[in-house]
Specification:
The protein is mainly α. Helix content is 81%, strand content 0%. Helix 1 packs across helix 3 and helix 2 (61-76) crosses helix 3 (78-87).
């Protein structure tokens, strides 16, 4: 029984698959932070809207400023975020 080395044509698709998987992992890692922050910020907007006692569709200009201030404080102050979660 003879041992035959695999030809380079058989290894070529494997390299493509490895390259594609590596590229997908890199893209996922790069996009994870901004996407996660956007989802987190959207959740905070909902919490702040609920804390103001309004639905998203009922937000006026004045309430929008209050909600924006609430979101900014919640994203920068972990204690405020904890208090906000506990209040709802």
């Amino acid at each position: 029984m003879a041992v035959v080395n695999p030809s380079s044509s058989q290894q070529l698709p494997r390299t493509y698959v490895v390259s594609i998987v590596a590229a997908l992992i890199a893209v996922t890692a790069l996009l994870w932070g901004p996407v996660a922050r956007g989802l987190h910020e959207e959740s905070v907007v909902r919490w702040c809207s609920a804390a103001q006692g309004v639905a998203r569709a009922e937000v006026t200009a004045e309430l929008s400023l209050q909600i924006a201030a609430c979101v900014e404080q919640a994203l920068t102050d972990p204690a405020y975020m904890t208090a906000l979660r506990a209040s709802l």
